[in-house]
UniProtKB/TrEMBL annotation:
Claim: Transmembrane is one of the keywords in the record: yes
Keyword annotations: Membrane, Transmembrane, Transmembrane helix
Transmembrane segment boundaries: 36-62, 68-99
The protein's name in its UniProt record: Integral membrane protein
Top-level taxon in the UniProt lineage: Bacteria
Source species: Gordonia neofelifaecis NRRL B-59395
């Protein structure tokens, strides 16, 4: 964003955060409703590759008098179908919630920061009133060379937390953590990073 929203700037002025510096989406991948809707559409299609053959083979067995085997296969297909529909429904619900709350934006000021859901709440904090944890993990793509990636977990004065990945601004997490008094990262695994990212989604 080229400038903060009016209500974010009003919160910053009330908290005496100084001059606005920049605004960014701190966790854009997890905060995209389109991504969740695409997965919701993909899950039933993927499940169909297992459900349809199982159901067909099961029906053939029932028709050929192998009743127990046939109904077991049909039952297995039904279970997979139900699980796929439940997972798809959950993914749709997540996407709808993001649409309802709006994207998460982090506004950086000289003396503090503002977290804002564009259709939800806004919280401002001075850097000395926010707590940060800095992490580093090894990431890779398609078997290529690995690289270190950093992210921060911010804890606001109201005890809410937000993960700051900001792939478009790799230095953002390190800079924010430093302003909150933390300079040395803790090394964790990729799986732990994924878990932390989802556990600290600011709402």
């Amino acid at each position: 964003m080229s400038h903060p929203t009016q209500r974010a700037h009003a919160e910053a002025e009330a908290a005496h955060l100084g001059e606005w510096e920049s605004s960014l989406a701190p966790n854009p991948d997890a905060d995209s409703p389109t991504r969740w809707f695409m997965w919701a559409a993909a899950v039933p299609l993927i499940a169909a590759y297992a459900v349809v053959p199982l159901a067909v083979i099961g029906w053939i067995n029932v028709r050929d008098a192998a009743t127990v085997v046939g109904w077991c296969l049909i039952g297995g297909a039904a279970v997979i179908a139900v699980i796929a529909l439940v997972v798809a429904a959950v993914l749709v619900a997540v996407g709808l919630r993001i649409l309802r709350l709006g994207r998460l934006i982090l506004h950086r000021y000289s003396e503090g920061l503002v977290l804002e859901r564009l259709k939800g709440r806004v919280v401002a904090a001075r850097y000395d009133a926010a707590r940060a944890e800095l992490f580093v993990f090894e990431n890779s793509s398609d078997g290529g060379p690995a690289w270190d990636e950093r992210f921060a977990i911010l804890t606001m004065p109201d005890a809410s937390t937000a993960a700051v990945f900001a792939p478009g601004d790799p230095a953002a997490a390190t800079e924010l953590a430093a302003r909150c008094g933390v300079r040395e990262p803790s090394r964790i695994s990729l799986l732990d990073a994924v878990d932390l990212r989802s556990a600290h989604e600011w709402r």
